[in-house]
Structure formats: structure tokens, C-alpha cells
Design brief:
single chain, alpha/beta, seven-stranded mixed sheet, 7 helices, 7 strands, 17% strand, globular
Length: 236
């Protein structure tokens, strides 16, 4: 066998194994993996809402509030659909829950119809309740804003399967870290700010789904991390 006949298989072997070796170097071990942090462990479950079958427990939920005039939040809803719902639709236990007051039920159904022009929305739930119940739920969350006069907000929230709110305890940029700027977190995501949803929220959800996937495989234990997150949150 001459050198030319050996050359081609040798080159093909190198081309095949180099990407594999590269991926092995990049693959994160469970010891170095950082979970999406818990920012609130006292989120209320959905009680006294129009659909009793919709629950936070057992689901990875994106929670949004459209209040008494849901159509005024159509841009928020459309951004949420295009940048988050469509991207994570196939993931296990994923759901979006949009909440309106009883007064806004008619507009809520109209908002749903607008979104239905694009998809069947199998994993998107639309529910209503009294203003008091909506406020009770919202103020059990950690948020950088308050509900407006219509019981609505452009902020959306990530809730895990154990009904704990996820986010970032430290959302400083690399430049702010270098300058040792004051620590600030990220507990909710503004759906009007496309960059925030497309970059930060999308990335945070990817991290959360990776965590749950590793848990199912037995490769991840976040119990000690959770205790530390809660301790840090209390100190803040």
C-alpha cells in the first residue's frame, strides 16, 4: 500500500475526530454548571382563577399580566410569542400563562384570536380572576415594577416546576463587574424590550431547561445551590 492510499483515510480521520475532541473540551461538567438562580421562593399558586386545570406546579411557566385591557398589551404578547413561545414550544412541561381581570375577559379572548392567526397555542393558557386575586399573585413575585392602573405590566416572569421564581441575582455587565459597580439583579423581563427578551430571557430559559434535562439524567444536583441562592437573596 503506497503513501497516497493511506493519506486520504488519515485526513478523513483527523477531520472526523477534531470536532469531537473540541466538543469534549467545551462540554460543561456538573461541577461547573451554574443553575438559573432563584430570586423568590414564595410565589403563590394559581387559586380562584377561571381555569382550575391551569397550575404553576409541575410546569416551567412564563407568567404575564395583561389586566383589564388586554388588547393594549398586544405588542407584549406578540413579542413573547415570536421570541419565546415559538422557540421553546417543544420543551417538556413548558407553558405560557397570560392573566387578565374578569373585566378584561372579552378583550383577552380577542387577544388570543390575534395570536391564533399564527399558531394553535396548545401550550399557552389564558385565564382571568378578580383584581384582588391578580394583585395577590403579582405581589408574591419579585418585580422591578408595579402593576399599572389596569392591573397589567410589560414584565414577564419565569416560574419553575416547584413554583419558584427564577432570574439573576447579579445582572451586571462585564464592564460593571470590572468597575465593581453595585450589585443588581434581574427578576423579570420587559417584553417591549426585544433585546432583553431575545438575549437575556432566551438565554436564561435555555439554562433552566438544561438544568432540568441534567436532573432527569441524574447529572445535576441544585439543592446546595438553591440554599445558597436563597441565603444570598435574603442578604440583598
Amino acid at each position: 500500500m503506497n503513501k497516497s492510499s493511506l493519506k486520504k483515510p488519515f485526513i478523513l480521520g483527523i477531520l472526523f475526530f477534531l470536532p469531537v475532541i473540541f466538543l469534549l473540551f467545551l462540554y460543561p461538567s456538573k461541577h461547573n454548571y451554574n443553575a438559573l438562580e432563584i430570586v423568590d421562593d414564595s410565589v403563590n399558586e394559581l387559586i380562584n382563577f377561571s381555569d382550575k386545570d391551569v397550575k404553576l406546579e409541575g410546569n416551567i411557566t412564563i407568567l404575564s399580566f395583561v389586566g383589564s385591557q388586554p388588547l393594549s398589551k398586544s405588542t407584549t404578547a406578540l413579542n413573547l410569542k415570536e421570541l419565546i413561545y415559538d422557540k421553546f414550544l417543544g420543551f417538556k412541561k413548558f407553558q405560557v400563562v397570560t392573566i387578565a381581570t374578569d373585566e378584561g375577559e372579552t378583550e383577552l379572548q380577542e387577544l388570543r384570536k390575534q395570536l391564533l392567526d399564527y399558531d394553535a397555542l396548545k401550550y399557552w393558557k389564558f385565564i382571568t380572576s378578580s383584581p384582588e386575586e391578580v394583585e395577590r399573585l403579582f405581589y408574591s413575585l419579585k418585580s422591578k415594577t408595579k402593576l399599572d392602573d389596569n392591573f397589567a405590566t410589560d414584565e414577564v416572569f419565569i416560574i419553575d416546576t416547584e413554583v419558584m421564581q427564577r432570574g439573576r441575582l447579579d445582572d451586571r455587565t462585564d464592564n460593571e463587574l470590572a468597575k465593581q459597580s453595585e450589585v443588581y439583579g434581574l427578576s423579570s423581563y420587559n417584553c417591549v424590550e426585544v433585546a432583553e427578551i431575545k438575549n437575556k430571557m432566551s438565554e436564561d430559559l435555555r439554562i433552566l431547561f438544561t438544568e432540568y434535562r441534567q436532573k432527569r439524567k441524574g447529572n445535576f444536583d441544585s439543592s446546595s445551590r438553591r440554599e445558597q441562592d436563597l441565603k444570598n437573596n435574603e442578604e440583598d
